[in-house]
Description:
By secondary structure, the chain is of the alpha+beta class. Helix content is 16%, strand content 48%. This is Biofilm formation stimulator Veg.
Amino acid sequence: xxxxxxxxxxxxxxxxxxxxxxxxxxxxxxxxxxxxxxxxxxxxxxxxxxxxxxxxxxxxxxxxxxxxxxxxxxxxxxxxxxxxxxx
Length: 87
C-alpha cells in the first residue's frame, strides 16, 4: 500500500477509466460496497461514476486520505474483469 497521499494519487492516475469496486466504512459498523469506473483524479479527491443499476446516484468522490487511513479499500479490475490491484 502507498505510504503518502501523492503516491496514492499517482497510482490511481495510472488506472483512470478502469472498473473498480469500493469497500467503504459507512459508519456504525456498516460497510458500503459500490462498483463503478474511475473517471477523474483531482488534487485532494478522486471521482467514480457508479453503476446505475445498483445505485440511486451517479457519482461519488473520496479523498486520498480515506484510502491512506484504510476507511476505503479499492479493488481495480482490467477489461476482462481480472483483479489488477488492491489499494
